Design the sequence.
């Protein structure tokens, strides 16, 4: 395979942060090349440099053997590069075809929708897409929106597709169909660069992988020479820590959280319980009632019928349960992005007298508290005055986990606790959940990552269309069986 | 009744220019509450230039330049100096309200009004042959001031540009998802500046209409909140040109009704005239309270684009 892109000693600094230093590797024509590393390892940065979004500080990029300096994405697009950003670059109010042609409209001032649509239909046929071109973007699922992004690049004659964390927002089926699509595109001669932090995707789909850590390349190797463990070690630069042992004997403790025939929105006659010292995993494909269950427990909603009990008492409408919660959407529900880290560290605890000096909130007490949480939960950088949105996903989540643990509630509801979080933080959060369980807390773990559920839970419940499709002791469950329940087969 | 409808069209005209001007500004993603200020400065310069040159066309040109300049000030502040869009809008409005009487005092030693323009130097109604002779409709629609015709065509032109051309596609993208436009090689800042400038020009026509078509001089604060009513019409019209046309006609009708009611003795005997004068504003308020929830602003309006 011929070399398509070569980075030579590329360095980039933002302020005092060395985002990339001395990055050198090659991408081969027609390959599926993975770039893997933890959040902040510099994998997105190096691709954004290639794509003309940032200028290089030093070093050289070769494209088809010749040095190139793309000044803007437009330059890169004209040379046949295309990037699907982690946050989609679509206009939600416009139609699919309008989004595809935006910026590269056909000749003439006036747009002729029927001509454009028939041209795009040919393009769809060529690459095996089947999108409704007249649909408005905001009415489409994320998976479909992502396909629009890819088609947008193909319309611009992209030969090299760069995908930045494409699966972060997708359901398992959408992930499968995405990779099937990418495989077809590769067979049609396209080069595909996949930026991800998910080991499984790298191992099962890529041919070559470049591992990055702290802004530098660890190495570029053929994927088949790797195992999950050896890849993980390269990414974090050390051996993975095993999960702490679980201790508590669950069977004789009484339930802290209990749902009896609860119906609410998508949830239908849902019954299950969580005992003290137990982790109950809720598995299922996103959209089967997980969000509604989280809303219900957070007090956003109240059962339409049935009974919700906490610590033996029936919940009352309008009164929030005294449980701790890691909400499913970190940005929208767990924190206020524009606030500082210390302000976010006391969200939900702000009425507690421990932060008060007479009647006002005490800045020093808040800072001291935040510093302790940051220390205990390894939130970096250790600057409690930093704006929350500036933190990496893993550090944001560790702060949220820390804050919720400080509530010292008897029950923790953890929704997708490691979504969009790097391996180091996943390790940390997982072992913290186990240690909470060992302290006798009841934990409800809602997650779409089956691996996570199986590794942590004592019992697994599969949610399908708002009801329990099946329940199993985790140690006896197999991924195959759970997968069947997830798609509607009953136990 | 005919007078009522005829004056409704005349009073809707400045609102239409300002509202459609505002349509281009706000759809590009910039909150533009300075329509009022833009109208005021252009009304002043149009009156002054027409008075000195005795040529309303030169006056119109002066109004366009001044209004375009005033809007550019807002555009520069918010797009390039990254000022808050509302604060900048307020600043431009206050500036216009202060600068126009100040300059007027320098020129004519009175802060309140400019000298009257002779009737032969003003714009006059143009009767379209044949059409204007149609009974009833002819007088209302086809015997109007030139800018009235333009104002009535404008929303249709704006609709065509926004929804049928590639410029429109970029306008809507700049207002709803500027990052998307940028990622495809579009220039968000340039797009916004151009559309703000065009919006400023349209809005200026509304200002010149007030001082050299509808009346014959500049008077202090003569826009009397029309820039804000135009903004209300734009919101009421859900930021779409054709519904905005009807919103403007509605507000124009309320205004002409109010003027007519002022001469109705049975009313003025019982109510202070100020109450009647306040009705269009009251209606604006009621309409906004009633319809605000259903109207969705351009998604990135008010947000700074880096």
Sequence:
């Amino acid at each position: 395979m011929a070399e398509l892109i070569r980075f030579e000693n590329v360095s980039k600094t933002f302020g005092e942060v060395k985002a990339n230093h001395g990055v050198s590797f090659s991408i081969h024509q027609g390959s599926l090349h993975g770039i893997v590393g933890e959040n902040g390892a510099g994998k997105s940065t190096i691709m954004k440099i290639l794509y003309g979004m940032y200028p290089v500080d030093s070093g050289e990029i070769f494209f088809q053997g010749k040095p190139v300096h793309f000044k803007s994405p437009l330059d890169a697009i004209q040379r046949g590069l295309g990037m699907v950003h982690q946050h989609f670059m679509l206009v939600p109010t416009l139609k699919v075809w309008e989004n595809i042609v935006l910026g590269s409209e056909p000749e003439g001032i006036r747009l002729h929708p029927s001509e454009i649509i028939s041209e795009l239909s040919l393009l769809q046929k060529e690459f095996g897409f089947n999108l409704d071109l007249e649909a408005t973007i905001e009415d489409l699922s994320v998976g479909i929106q992502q396909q629009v992004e890819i088609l947008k690049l193909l319309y611009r004659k992209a030969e090299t597709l760069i995908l930045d964390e494409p699966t972060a927002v997708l359901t398992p089926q959408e992930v499968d169909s995405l990779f099937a699509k990418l495989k077809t595109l590769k067979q049609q001669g396209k080069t595909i660069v996949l930026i991800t932090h998910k080991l499984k995707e790298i191992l099962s789909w890529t041919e070559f992988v470049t591992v990055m850590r702290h802004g530098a390349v660890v190495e570029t190797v053929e994927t088949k020479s790797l195992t999950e463990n050896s890849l993980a070690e390269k990414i974090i630069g050390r051996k993975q820590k095993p999960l702490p042992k679980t201790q508590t004997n669950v069977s004789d403790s009484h339930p802290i959280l209990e749902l009896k025939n609860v119906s609410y929105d998508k949830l239908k006659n849902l019954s299950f319980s969580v005992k003290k010292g137990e982790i109950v995993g809720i598995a299922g494909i996103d959209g089967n009632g997980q969000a509604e269950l989280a809303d219900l427990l957070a007090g956003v909603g109240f059962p339409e019928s049935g009974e919700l009990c906490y610590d033996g008492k029936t919940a009352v409408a309008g009164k929030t349960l005294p449980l701790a919660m890691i909400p499913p959407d970190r940005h929208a529900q767990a924190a206020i992005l524009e606030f500082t880290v210390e302000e976010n560290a006391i969200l939900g605890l702000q009425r507690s007298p421990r932060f008060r000096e007479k009647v006002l909130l005490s800045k020093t007490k808040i800072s001291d508290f935040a510093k302790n949480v940051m220390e205990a939960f390894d939130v970096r950088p250790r600057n409690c005055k930093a704006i929350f949105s500036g933190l990496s996903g893993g550090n944001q989540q560790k702060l949220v986990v820390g804050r919720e643990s400080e509530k010292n509630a008897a029950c923790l509801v953890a929704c997708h606790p490691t979504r969009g979080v790097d391996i180091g933080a996943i390790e940390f959060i997982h072992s913290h959940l186990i240690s909470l369980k060992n302290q006798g807390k009841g934990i409800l773990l809602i997650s779409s990552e089956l691996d996570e559920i199986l590794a942590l839970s004592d019992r697994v419940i599969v949610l399908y269309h708002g009801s329990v499709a099946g329940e199993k002791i985790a140690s006896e469950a197999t991924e195959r069986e759970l997968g069947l329940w997830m798609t509607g087969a009953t136990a | 009744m005919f007078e009522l409808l005829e004056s409704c069209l005349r009073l809707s005209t400045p609102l239409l220019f300002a509202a459609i001007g505002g349509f281009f500004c706000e759809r590009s993603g910039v909150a533009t509450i300075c329509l009022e200020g833009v109208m005021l400065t252009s009304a002043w310069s149009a009156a002054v230039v027409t008075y000195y040159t005795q040529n309303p066309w030169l006056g119109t040109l002066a109004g366009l330049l001044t209004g375009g300049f005033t809007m550019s000030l807002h555009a520069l502040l918010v797009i390039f100096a990254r000022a808050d869009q509302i604060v900048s809008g307020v600043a431009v409005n206050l500036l216009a309200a202060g600068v126009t009487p100040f300059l007027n005092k320098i020129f004519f030693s009175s802060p309140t009004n400019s000298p009257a323009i002779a009737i032969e130097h003003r714009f006059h109604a143009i009767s379209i042959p044949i059409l204007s002779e149609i009974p009833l409709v002819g007088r209302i629609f086809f015997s109007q001031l030139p800018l009235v015709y333009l104002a009535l065509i404008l929303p249709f032109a704006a609709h065509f540009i926004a929804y049928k051309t590639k410029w429109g596609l970029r306008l809507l993208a700049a207002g709803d998802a500027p990052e998307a436009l940028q990622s495809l090689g579009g220039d968000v800042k340039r797009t916004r500046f151009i559309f703000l400038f065009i919006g400023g020009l349209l809005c200026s026509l509304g200002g010149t209409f007030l001082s050299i078509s509808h009346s014959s001089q500049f008077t202090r604060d003569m826009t009397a909140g029309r820039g804000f009513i135009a903004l209300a019409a734009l919101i009421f019209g859900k930021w779409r040109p054709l519904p905005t046309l009807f919103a403007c006609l509605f507000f124009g009708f309320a205004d002409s009704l109010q003027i007519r009611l002022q001469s109705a003795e049975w009313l003025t005997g019982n109510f202070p005239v100020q109450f009647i004068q306040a009705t269009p504003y009251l209606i604006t308020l009621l309409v906004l309270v009633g319809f605000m929830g259903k109207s969705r602003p351009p998604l990135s309006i008010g947000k700074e684009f880096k």
Remarks:
- The domain at 2-119+145-294 of chain B is CATH 1.10.3470 (ABC transporter involved in vitamin B12 uptake, BtuC).
